[in-house]
């Protein structure tokens, strides 16, 4: 049994739990909510949901989770969606004026609310490298989504989905512009700037669980870091 915790301080944690519960028999996983350092200690991997990154960081500090989360990220796989992606990033622009505490783990610079405010939220069909049924696009739901501004590392980063240039909220000519990146992996971690948990499509959660479970529950971390799709 592999325990994939979901950080449940604020945001769309219940939706992530629903998606993972649909996969619990297939991948032999449990998906508990994480609200305390003790909850976190029981996890093999973690999802940090979307919501509001400043609030999640503040609540993590108040619950004594900030340092345990940073330590967890050093050794175990973490998937950050939207606000969670911001928290996993190395640096953020457009932070609230009181600043933004980050957990780090993925060497990208990211812009909070990079495509604009709530009314600029949008959906886009995405081709995602490594999902099951690759011919069926995955619906990316972008809500006050962050935008990857650049990669701040020479370490290998695997880009697994980009927004097609013609679907970008603002025109970008270069298809390799980092702002088109909406899903990527680095080392143990996965980052998506959109909300897979808000669809009825379990394939992204299947992708995460599959890469953890391939190792039979023993060396879950190296499995995710070295697998090829
Ligand atoms: N803009 C939000 C933030 O700063 C993230 C939005 C989301 O998670 N949907 O945290």
From TrEMBL:
Family: Belongs to the glutaminase PdxT/SNO family. Belongs to the peptidase S10 family.
Highest taxon listed in the record's lineage: Eukaryota
Naturally occurring in which organism (per UniProt): Favolaschia claudopus
The name this protein goes by in its record: glutaminase
């Amino acid at each position: 049994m592999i325990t994939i915790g979901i950080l449940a301080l604020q945001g769309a944690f219940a939706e992530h739990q629903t998606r993972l519960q649909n996969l619990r028999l297939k991948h032999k996983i449990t998906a508990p909510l994480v609200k305390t350092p003790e909850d976190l200690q029981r996890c093999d991997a973690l999802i940090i949901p979307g919501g509001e990154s400043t609030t999640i960081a503040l609540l993590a500090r108040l619950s004594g989770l900030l340092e345990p989360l940073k330590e967890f990220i050093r050794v175990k796989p973490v998937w950050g969606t939207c606000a969670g992606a911001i928290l996993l990033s190395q640096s953020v622009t457009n932070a609230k004026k009181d600043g933004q505490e980050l957990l780090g783990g993925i060497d990208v610079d990211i812009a909070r609310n990079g495509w604009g405010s709530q009314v600029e939220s949008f959906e886009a069909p995405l081709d995602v490298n490594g999902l099951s049924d690759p011919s069926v696009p995955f619906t990316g739901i972008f809500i006050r989504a962050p935008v990857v501004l650049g990669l701040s590392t020479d370490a290998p980063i695997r880009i697994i989905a980009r927004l097609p240039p013609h679907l970008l909220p603002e025109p970008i000519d270069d298809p390799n512009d980092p702002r088109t990146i909406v899903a990527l992996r680095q080392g143990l971690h996965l980052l998506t700037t959109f909300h897979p948990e808000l669809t009825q499509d379990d394939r992204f959660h299947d992708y995460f669980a599959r890469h953890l479970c391939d190792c039979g529950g023993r060396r879950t971390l190296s499995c995710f870091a070295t697998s090829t799709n």
